[in-house]
Structure formats: C-alpha cells, structure tokens
Specification:
Blueprint: H1 2-9, E1 25-26, H2 31-40, E2 49-50
Length: about 55
C-alpha cells in the first residue's frame, strides 16, 4: 500500500500539483501557541515558527 502511494505521489511533487499544508507563525510571542497546537491537531501539516525576517 505504501509503495502504491509513493508511486502515485512522487511524480506529482515537483510540479506543485500536490503539496503540504503549512501554517507559519511569526514572532517569538507565538512560541507557546505553536507548541500547544501540535498535539491538538490545530494544523494537519507543518507549522514553522519564524523568529526573525
């Protein structure tokens, strides 16, 4: 099953047709919010915390 998924998904990743969900939080003041959101499922994809520009 995993191999079938990879065979389907891998060719589409470079084209951008399939992507990941990403929520970006800006600023150290959102550190606790980002941390507490991980186990709660607030974001199904990646949630980077950007500390500086």
């Amino acid at each position: 099953m995993q191999e079938e998924r990879e065979d389907f998904l891998v060719p589409h990743l470079p084209s951008g047709r399939i992507g990941t969900d990403t929520t970006v939080l800006q600023g150290i003041e959102h550190t606790v919010e980002a941390f507490l959101g991980m186990p709660g499922g607030d974001n199904p994809g990646k949630m980077p915390l950007r500390l500086a520009d």
